[in-house]
Write a structure and sequence with these properties.
alpha+beta; Jelly Rolls; 2 domains; seven-stranded antiparallel sheet; six-stranded antiparallel sheet; binds 2-oxoglutaric acid; binds fe (ii) ion
């Protein structure tokens, strides 16, 4: 499946690519019926694995009526309409190959846990009336996930969703709200550089009117942030620091202190993609009760209605997003993540 350059460019700049009518209506209906019958049969479960760190769990909604069909069930030929699921899997595998080429991420999904399913992770999701999903990013730098972060052989690279709803109207709620970076050009692809994941960005400034992704090297818990330099090398922005506790102090202000030793003049431009969160910090910021949020400095909210057949794609590391509360209706989707190999062992924590 050929991925248009404009779609690739959108993903690489940290924005959401929206492709209406990706799935023909008959396939949308088949998958929706399949999801409904699997849900009715009790095969869906609460997304307990959601967010890989304890810190994340505090930031998620505990009580909302959201459930998933896991991969083992998805891949079970004995259950419901397996033919429809397999057809979608084949389509997603073709999309994955197209994306690997268009995004120059050749390792995309190689060695996937479930090659037959077409995507490393794939599941149905159901939001009951009133359900929502709090602001988050789908993948974090390994150091932000502590030891577990380095153990996984692969990581999320591209997030995808195909909505399965029939005639979703403006009043139905449940929009996917994405927090894109608003102003201007991004200097180079977001997400990762040479295996190092992005943790933040430098905002555009008068003398340098582009946003610059900031990546983090980490070796045995010793970290250093950098951006792409002029000659293609790394331009270090901080000295070496210990991941703990520094990365777990909330907010840009603390991160900006790290720039003092290297590039103090750039400190004020630094912004976390998604500031590390903790239940305590959320309480402090009054976020615990918030079902939806407004854009932070320099962000623009883009709302996507979950209309049947629409495909959305975005970089799993770079784009914060949330799902607004649904009103009366159930909200159905099939979603997943194409993975990439995680970087080599020399980066492993001691
Ligand atoms: O259902 C959606 O639109 C988004 C879901 C999501 O963000 C997630 O599962 O990580
Ligand atoms: Fe997400």
């Amino acid at each position: 499946l050929t991925v248009p350059p404009s779609v690739a460019a959108t993903i690489q700049s940290g924005r959401i690519a929206i492709i209406p009518n990706f799935l023909p209506p008959p396939e949308v209906s088949q998958l929706r019926a399949d999801a409904r019958s699997l849900h009715a049969a009790g095969f869906f479960s609460a997304p307990s694995d959601y967010g890989s760190t304890a810190k994340d769990k505090g930031a998620k909604d505990a009580g909302s009526d959201r459930s998933l069909l896991r991969l083992a069930r998805w891949s079970d030929p004995a259950l419901a309409d397996f033919a429809a699921r397999r057809r979608l899997g084949a389509r997603m595998a073709r999309l994955r190959s197209g994306l690997a080429l268009a995004l120059a991420r050749p390792a995309l999904d190689r060695g996937a846990a479930a090659p037959d399913a077409g995507s490393s992770e794939i599941s149905y999701s159901r939001f009951g009336p009133g359900a929502f999903l709090r602001r988050h990013v789908d993948e974090h730098h390994e150091e932000l996930k502590l030891r577990a972060g380095w153990r996984a052989p692969t990581r999320r690279s591209v997030s995808w969703l195909v909505y399965l709803n029939e005639g979703w109207g403006e009043g139905d709620g449940g929009e996917l709200r994405c927090f894109e970076r608003g102003a201007g050009r991004v200097a180079g692809p977001v997400g990762a550089e040479d295996g190092d994941l992005q943790v933040g960005l430098l905002r555009a400034a008068r003398g340098d009117p582009v946003e610059r992704p900031v990546f983090m090297e980490a070796k045995a818990g010793r970290c250093r942030m950098y951006m792409r330099g002029g000659g293609g090398g790394r331009e270090y922005l901080t000295g070496v620091f210990d991941a703990e506790p520094v990365l777990f102090l909330v907010g840009d202000f603390f991160a900006q202190q790290l720039f003092r030793g290297a590039r103090p003049e750039l400190a004020g431009r630094f912004h976390y993609l998604e500031a590390p969160r903790s239940p305590a910090a959320d309480r402090l910021l009054g976020l615990r009760a918030a079902k939806s949020t407004t854009p932070e400095g320099g962000e623009v909210a883009v709302d996507v209605r979950p209309v049947g057949g629409t495909l959305v794609l975005f970089d799993s590391v770079a784009l914060p997003h949330e799902v607004l509360p649904t009103k009366e209706r159930e909200r159905w989707a099939v979603s997943g993540w194409f993975h990439e190999k995680q970087q080599g062992e020399h980066h492993t924590r001691a």
